[in-house]
Amino acid sequence: MTTPQPTPLLLTRRRIWIIFSALIAGMFLSSLDQTIVGTAMPTIVGNLGGVEHQAWITSAYLLATTIVMPIYGKFGDVLGRRRLFLIAIAVFTLASIGCAFATDFWTFVLFRAAQGLGGGGMMILSQAIIADIVPAAERGKYLGPLGAVFGLSAIGGPLLGGFFVDHLSWRWAFYINIPIGIAAFVIALLALTLPNKKATKPIDVAGVIALSLATTCLIIFADFGGDSDHGWGAVETWLLGAGLVLSAAAFVLIESRAADPIIPLTLFRNPTFMNATAIGLTLGIGMFAAIGFVPTFLQMSSGTSAAVSGLLLLPMMVGLIGTSIVSGREITRTGRYKLFPILGTLLAAMAMLAMTTLEAGTALWLICGYLLVFGAGLGLIMQVIVLVAQNAVTPDLIGTATSTNNYFREVGAALGTAVFGTIFTTRLTEGLTDVFTGAGASAGAAARATATLDPATLQQLPTTVREGIVAAYADALAPVFWYLLPFTAIALILALVLKQIPLADVAGLIARGEAIGGEEAEALEAAHRSSSLQASTSAAADGPALPAPAARSDVVPIEGRDGHQPRPPQLQ
Question: Taking a C-beta distance cutoff of 8 angstroms, is the pair 287, 345 a contact?
């Protein structure tokens, strides 16, 4: 008895937007969390007694996100992305519950890391699924709805985070993820219709372990090196450095022998992919580290409420979203992308140079102007380099290429946040301690006051002490931008030599033979609807009728370069 072949996914226009709605739900959950937590951060670290260790909140999330990115990317290519996307939403939501009920700083950091395990999956799988259903040549026009999602979270996040901090509790910044996470899970469960597959080669477990160890050693090595409690001369710092070298070497050896490596080494022989990934790495070091502590500075220096200080980041999001949409449309119209990373790095460098002048008395409108330019630069780079990386590889490696590109960008962001975050917090702690001791506090009292300082406490202090604290924040942050500028210069050089190659006009699922698109999919969908209607009419008039052909409307329309669609193989 022969096994019937499963029907292929039909990528009609309707199906594309249904799938896209599920992706938007997951992206909204992740992006809203980031903007809410950023606004509530000063209050969280003050309440939990972790001001001097606040870099760990960001580093833990980024570390977890970075570790799981290649795993989600590769497993999505091998097993299908639907179930993994659902798992990512569930993990993120459950970890949010843990953050909400955390009673001490390090427990909070642990659950924040768990959130990163889910957030990394939502980020990578969303980008890979879009590449699966929309060809590179048309992908830019889908940035509009995505921009609306990020815009909504950019406005709603600071308002909600500020409202929670000012009127309820910072814990509501995580309570809110529970209903949103449940809604996103249900939407994805119902709308995300994608083929599931089975692995045909052994899973690269050894590669996953070696890569996770190398990433962990790298981030903690950087954090310990810049931390006054350890430093670059500490034995434990260099033990982590040795662990990094050994685990990285083991990873390369494992990948060279694995039947199906989690990050194929052949990717690094692809010059276009390598260039885009190198831009992502330097972008992460130089730019994401720059924005990690700006919300804290704004809130402490402006003396405004959490909600208002959060909204001060709105210009950056406006710039980012605006240039993302414009560049996406232009790439779709012209098929050319090289100009945008060049312009983006120039704008970001200008903004970072301006932010080296930050001081306690800098006007808020001027800071907002810097952030607008900075965001505009990021918007011209972020989506473009992912598109370039996806377009540079074969369709069966879309998920792996997406995750690898994002992995190195997040390695850069985590590394930059760890190194420059510890520089910032070390300088800040020293400055705050000097302020409190100068006001007459003992060394122990000054240390306790520094560890538990939050915006509400700041407003209750005498004017001279408050002014000293604001100056300490400015003096700690502004010099950090000088350290970051060289990485922006490297990103500019890489952007100048980025190769322009034609954009693919076939979606990933269709190119792999897992779906039918274009006019053929629309015709099959129409035929299925017509036969279903005839069958139901016949059944009503004459009784039971023969079953209609089993065609599924599970896909999106995309034409191949030659106008023909490949025949789909059996799907598991």
Answer: no
Q: Which residues contact 180 (CB under 8 A, 6 or more apart)?
A: 28, 29, 32
Closest CA to 52 of 302, 299, 421: 421
Rounded to the nearest angstrom, the gap between the alpha carbon of residue 51 and the centroid of all alpha carbons in its chain is 25
Angle at 94 between CA 89 and CA 100, to 5 degrees: 125
Over 70: is that where the pLDDT of 328 sits? yes
Question: 3-state SS of the chain: helix, strand, coil percent to 5?
Answer: 75, 0, 25
* Inter-residue contact 549 to 531 (CB < 8 Å): yes
Give the model confidence (pLDDT) of 265-309 as tens digits.
888 888 888 998 899 888 888 776 666 667 667 766 665 555 566
Residue 256 CA neighbour count, 13 Å, CB half: 6
Reported as a single tens digit per residue, the pLDDT across 402-414 is: 888 888 887 887 7
For residue 9, which phi and psi values (nearest 5 degrees)? Answer: -70, 135
Q: What is the pLDDT of residues 354-399, one digit of tens each?
A: 888 877 777 778 888 888 998 888 888 887 888 888 888 887 777 7
Rounded to whole angstroms, how far apart are CA atoms 204 and 353? Answer: 44
pLDDT, tens digit (0-9, with 9 covering 90-100), for 50-67: 666 666 777 778 778 888
How far apart CA 543 and CA 323 sit, in angstroms, is 59
In sign, the C-alpha dihedral spanning 194, 196, 199, 204 is: positive
Name residue, tokens 């350290």: 483
Based on the number of CB atoms within 10 Å of its own CB, is 179 exposed (0-12), middle (13-18) or buried (19 or more)?
exposed
Q: Phi/psi zone of residue 231: left (φ > 0), alpha (ψ -120 to 50 degrees), beta?
A: left
Q: Are 72 and 88 in contact (CB under 8 A)?
A: yes
Element (H, E) at 331: helix 314-334
Q: Where are the beta strands (DSSP E) in 9-73?
A: 9-11
Tokens coding 205 = 């477990």
- Reported pTM: 0.73
Give yes or no for a contact between 461 and 246, defined as CB atoms under 8 angstroms apart: no
